[in-house]
# Entry
Amino acid sequence: MMDELLGIITRSIIISGTATLLASTWSIPLAYRLSHKTRAGYIRSILEALVGVPTVLIGLLLYMILCSQCPLGLLGILYTPIAIVIGEAILVTPLITAVSLYEISRVRARYGELAQSLGASDRQVMEVVLKYSIPGIIGALLMGFSRAIGELGVALIVGGNIKGYTRVMTTAIALEVSRGEYEEAILLGLLLLLIVAVIAVGLRMIRGGRD
Amino acid sequence: MMDELLGIITRSIIISGTATLLASTWSIPLAYRLSHKTRAGYIRSILEALVGVPTVLIGLLLYMILCSQCPLGLLGILYTPIAIVIGEAILVTPLITAVSLYEISRVRARYGELAQSLGASDRQVMEVVLKYSIPGIIGALLMGFSRAIGELGVALIVGGNIKGYTRVMTTAIALEVSRGEYEEAILLGLLLLLIVAVIAVGLRMIRGGRD
Amino acid sequence: TGNWGVVRVRATTTTSLYATGLLDYLSNKYMKQHPDTRIDFMPVGSGEALRRAGDGEACLVLVHAPSLEKEYIDRGVIYYHRIFAYNYFVIVGPGNDPAHVSNATNIVDAMKKIYNAGEAGKAKFISRGDNSGTNVRELMLWKKTGLDPNDRKWYIVSGTGMGQTLVMADQMNAYTLSDKATYLKYLASNRIHNLKILYSNDTALINIYSAYLVKGCNGKELERAKGFIDFITSSRGQELIASYGVELYGEPLFYPANNKTSLADTWSKLVKGLDP
Amino acid sequence: MIKLCGVSHSYDGRRFILQNIDLEVGKGQIVFIMGPNGSGKTTILKIMGLLLKPTKGRILFEDRDYWSLRERERLEIRRRVIYVHEKPLFFPGTVIENMLYPLYIRGYHREEALELINKMLEENGLINIIDKRVDELSSGTLQILSILRAMLPTPDLLLLDEPLTHLDLENQLKIIKILKQYLSMGKTLIVSTHNPLFPRRMGGRIYELNNGSLREIDPNSLKTI
Amino acid sequence: MIKLCGVSHSYDGRRFILQNIDLEVGKGQIVFIMGPNGSGKTTILKIMGLLLKPTKGRILFEDRDYWSLRERERLEIRRRVIYVHEKPLFFPGTVIENMLYPLYIRGYHREEALELINKMLEENGLINIIDKRVDELSSGTLQILSILRAMLPTPDLLLLDEPLTHLDLENQLKIIKILKQYLSMGKTLIVSTHNPLFPRRMGGRIYELNNGSLREIDPNSLKTI
Ligand SMILES: Nc1ncnc2c1ncn2[C@@H]1O[C@H](COP(=O)(O)OP(=O)(O)OP(=O)(O)O)[C@@H](O)[C@H]1O
Ligand SMILES: Nc1ncnc2c1ncn2[C@@H]1O[C@H](COP(=O)(O)OP(=O)(O)OP(=O)(O)O)[C@@H](O)[C@H]1O
Ligand SMILES: [Mg+2]
Ligand SMILES: [Mg+2]
# Structure
């Protein structure tokens, strides 16, 4: 029992952590591109609107691509942790992009021209802007991780809640709920919050007290 | 059929819109308080960590308060839209607070002392800081609304997915999924995204092209 | 009671039953006779449906999980037990039937065939693992074979609802136990591509749907809840159940109970874990 | 008007920028604060501008100990004091929005405020930029505007931190003229500067801040480059 | 070194701040740009600093038309030009981090860079603030640092926008001395200022910008307050 719980916890952290990092590989560059002063406002709004996209929808769309008769069925990754990672990475993309955009725009407006005036190349301007956006980016990634580890729809639909393989915290919670075991479900939920909070506090120590 | 769909859509918008506004009544003041330069970093991190709190957990906790033998059972609001509003308002509080905090901190650091030096009272400093934070706050509220309208757990557990009464877009989607009608579920999901996107674009026109 | 003089009857039920559309169909008919009544169905898991009844959050319960129901009857949570429909669980599996379940002589044989094929690496079986009526029945069947599939590599415990379990079995070429109604529904909506019914219509697989009232519920809500149970067990209600879905699926999803005492006996056996 | 009694200040609790400073500035007076870079001019101006609470010592405003007053009374006093930053600060938006602000927070009616602003900008030849966004203005223009904005609600005590920065000759002379007028209305001015010609033109006492202490100096002892 | 040919500039497409300007500054020369507030000094400096592309006209850097070059070549040129903002800008963080930056992006080794920085700060009596955070420094100190930072990678063309702003007498003289040394290394300087004493001290041509055009003037024709 204890073993199983530990498995579920580490699995959740690894899957959602991987999904967050994966999402960051395209979300951060995208946010940097959008941080130009030009009229990226509408794209920004659309990203904000997509922050809460129903997880079930992403799960279903991904299913429609990964199922055996489907375009990418041959990959055989449906009902594996990989499928959850992909779905969660898509899920958190708008959140990570929209939130890190706040910091990146601010930093770029403030320090972009300075870097340029000191002789930085476009690439070096990006580097320095991202460097000074790190506290905000960490915040965005933390939110993304929290969202990923707390989501249910993707994990359930493309993961399948398979015991010992794709069962994560939220699918375990859902199972307890369907059994009517609300107390156990709540305990699991609080445990999940505790885990994310511990990670958050850990990251904060890297970030420093303020910002 | 069309009537029912229309009902579900308006119900979703009203419930989640109300929840977002309700949450803003405490989230924005909270964000302002946290925007002091003092060491609010840890609180900020915890808020970010709570962004993805499982909706099922909030649903269950609220159920444990609102059920008839429970502390607030006498209110009789379980299985009503009010219960969903409350649950969603709690759900989006960390998101709205954490995101608007980015803008409010920045604006306060930049314009707070100016307002003070020109003779503003504490209250007036707050007013002017919030005024110039509006673009960011709208973004935070939009994200909150998107999250609220896209969430499932609260609506399902304390709303009950009652046809014509507490059935909202996401619970309708979940029902279609349980019926195996994935295509219909996806259509409903895309419709939901469309609605939020239209609202986002409308808000953007108020906000202006950039920021 | 609810707004505008409408009597709200809070009803919890299992998702799989609600998803067939039967309950909305029946309640629409009932509300024609009682326009001031609205039955609010809340589709949830079996355990959850009964738990909410225990919390006093429902007046009417419609489920198909006898042993679980018995617990709540004994605790005095639910009463006024009426069986309103039944059908059969079915063993479904890949069309090429690697375990040869379709040749099974009886249910024990069928389960053993799956077990052996599983051990031989030729088959998989998905268990819902959610303590639902279907899951409880599946475990009973394994017990009868004297084999323990737990922790075998081919025995996949998925912990999802009936519908998704069927989809997973279809995708993974696995066997599973399903209620017939959900299977037909998923087949009709094209969610299932190569999953076939390989074993069915064995009394050992009977699936009994029961309705209950909940203690603590009173007044008009109770009156109408009771009225609804009486309606669906009335001869008119039973006719409606018998014909439901025939047009769409080519065969009935449910058989009417028609107050057969044999069904009550079967139910009692199931509760005790005995062979029906 | 304002009096510092034994004021010391340290930002980090270790190094004291100001050490036991006493200074009194009477109503209608002008006082210049000079001193090398980093000597604490901005710090002492912010303290007298009631924006920064000193680590030690008292600030008497019309004989009342400011930092021991209640919030209501403090606000009342603060409404009569304006400090102009050494780097002109503005709210994002247009010139008119920025000029309205100090009047708005003091409860002026909009019409009255607009009239005052129009008059002031017209007198200074700036009426044509009234609807410009501040981020489109040159640094000198912003400097003038920040001084004019501070004068709009006619504070009794006006503190100016290097007010001639970024100004061309003509505008420097204009500001000097305006400040003289302001003095003649019985208002009090405290000004920091690095330009010795400035106090020579204005008159008034000059203090030099150095190593944490303040001492009065003779304007003619000062050189330029 | 750098040559403007028929350069005009407008921010909004309507009002032209600069109109058809021609200017040539040779290697080793110093040129002052003066002119009233809002006349476009900052604009022309940013254009010559290759940060702002003018609406019309060409900028020849060592006879190459800068804005028609490819990105690689432009970067190569930009590495040899530094513009110092009129309001000193810094990255958040410490002095040393900020001083390292222009060297870092030019690929200096860390040890070499640290050595250069230490030497420069020591020569200017600023070694004690090397680890300070820039938001804890006074405006004058930041002004000096922003000039020193620009000189570290010894750009061939250095543009200074009002470099004496916020500086006390001693620091003004120090900067003048440093700039003279820099000139004597064969570097080119373009400087804007409102202080006529500055070009008198430095020598070099003086241009006045007014109503969009540039004309050379006699330093002795200029007055101070
Ligand atoms: N927020 C702060 N935190 C720590 N130290 C500070 C802070 N602000 C100023 N200081 C330090 O206090 C000293 C005085 O600074 P101040 O800005 O008052 O000098 P100043 O006389 O106005 O200089 P300048 O002529 O350059 O404007 C400086 O050594 C500066 O580094
Ligand atoms: N980003 C901008 N958008 C629109 N107009 C601008 C912008 N920047 C400057 N201007 C305008 O261009 C003109 C020249 O500005 P610039 O800053 O070059 O003047 P300057 O000579 O440096 O003035 P100062 O002596 O005050 O620094 C001004 O009228 C200013 O309002
Ligand atoms: Mg200063
Ligand atoms: Mg300028």
